[in-house]
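@channel anyone free to eyeball this complex?
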Amino acid sequence: MHQFKIRRILLEREAGEDSIAQRIRTRLPDVPITPVAPDDLALDRDIEELDKQSLRMVHFSGEFLKPCPGTPRYICCGYQILHVGINCPMDCSYCFLQSYLNQPSLRIFSNLANKLDAIGAIIDSHPGRIFRIGTGEFTDSLALDYLIGWTDTLLPFFSSKRNCILELKTKTTCIENLLKKRDVGQRIIVAWSLNTPRIIAHEERNTASLESRILAARSCQKAGYVVAFHFDPLIHYPGGREEYEEVVQLMERHLDPETIIWISMGSFRYMPDLKWVIKRRFPKTQIFDGEFIKGLDGKLRYFKPIRVEMYANLFEKLKKWYDDLGVYLCMESDDVWSQSLGWSPEKTGCLSEYLDERVKKLMRG
Amino acid sequence: MKTPLQSTPLQVEISDIDLSPGPFCMSFQFSLEKLKASIDRFGVLNPPYLVKISAFTVVAGYRRLLAARELGWADIPCRILPGDLQSLDTLLLNLHDNLTVRQFNPIEKGMVLTRLARYITEEEILRDYMPMLDLPSNRHTLRLYLGFEDLDDAVKVSVATGRLSVKAVEAIRVLSREDQREINRLFTTLKWSVNLQWRACLWITEIASREGQSVREVIEDIAELATKGTMNNPQKVRAIVKALRERRFPAIMESERSFKKVISHIALPSKVRVVHPPFFEGTDYTLEIVFRGGEELMETLARLQNTAGLDEITDFWKTKT
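replying in thread with the prediction:
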């Protein structure tokens, strides 16, 4: 298992007594710990470099469970984000966090365990609703699990909830803790972000290879987990069509399609300011070579026929492999859905229902 | 109140002064003519400040010294600063001396920031000195200006003289010096607006990346347009921008052409216009009718109802991928 380098721990005063902070201190006995006040940012390094080797333990006072903001004027999936931390030890060129974050370092919310009762109360107060919850929006769900033990905290909690699922999204093979916890994995979906080997090599620094991600998914399937995949961001480049097809072939070779709950597709999109951060940090990146237009939400995205072509090609290959993979589009318009997949949920609420049905179908018990 | 800076007056031989741009210099691309005329007539009103390191090093008054030398002066009245003065103080003396009498060009601002960065933290620069130089206090801008020292010399001259915009530099600064020179040549042979210059920079570099060509090859392809004798300067710029746009966005331009072709075959009433959704991303077209009164509007609507070919307005983005 890959372990990410942590050079120092910044311990915010109130986080000292939190269980996650105590655990990290024992897991990283040789890493220096510097106590800091919550508003003390003097030790933070360059925000643009994101300082991915400093672990800052934060006693988070904000809301842990929040609806995904989605994006205006496109169809979204109605997901809930569980905020366990911000920033990630990997370094993908296209990562939106580069222009989103206003503070560097890996920020871990050390009081997560104390907040689970409140989160449980929200979930329990809507028994008729399915909560699709994920921790992988602002960080990788598993990359630091070997240190923080998110799965130790979250899996027993979510296994007792009948009206929700927890999706753990990753680009790693950090599944050791998961494999030890088969008995509490009923409401857990382990998901991988997928891309072509070329994009992984050039644009996803410090992440696991495609093949090892797929093999890790197979191990999780064998251990009884339902899995999911996210082709996001799809990057348009010469030869990309064939290379994305090869990704599907690899999935076909190793995975059982019957326990894949969903596969999403989303094309590369970005806020205008992000381009300059990326160009500075990754001067050789080719992710901006495509034809981008300003979308209805103000983000730059590929010209519509390019998106449709990418989605339709990939969907065709996935469908040929197995006809019930729960393929959906992330933040796309009604006409792109129709042109690419041959159907459209038409609005966010209907996509949510579609995904809820997938939960009911695959997550029995 | 701070203690006034101690200095000693001294008449110094110009040949004893190191006149290469030293560690405190913040002058780039300037003309000495007006200064020479002034010194010739009235002498040096404000003596240069020097510090003795091994030779006399210029702290403030670099241009005055060059002007005096060009006027053939053998010596010049100066003020000598104590040798133990902190380098930062010496640098700040020159900065304040300059700020009171002139504006810095962008390259000079980069020089100031680069020199300050040797002695103080980024936070201090952002807080105290970026506003002083009329720059926004953010790291992005600071990095951009700190990078000016690495630009090709010809590019520096263009930036200092305003022929190449700072915004354009942002797009080309990661390029090799040879590529920077090529782009610089394109922009200094024709007069460009800041915005078009920036777009063209971006598109040239992105076309090179998309097509696996060098920046020079891309520029060579369009250079012919810049030399066409039949076009005036703005026409040449427009032609180059159009050619770059066609090449950078082939699918979008193809859809634009399909749309225009269909619309051009529809005999729309006068003062009526069909506008496609921006970049064809949305699905709704707009019909614009200009009219003076209800009667004219009714006439136009009646004519529109009988206009053939309106049903051919469709999803033009589907024409090409």
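from a first look: The longest strand of chain A covers residues 226-234.
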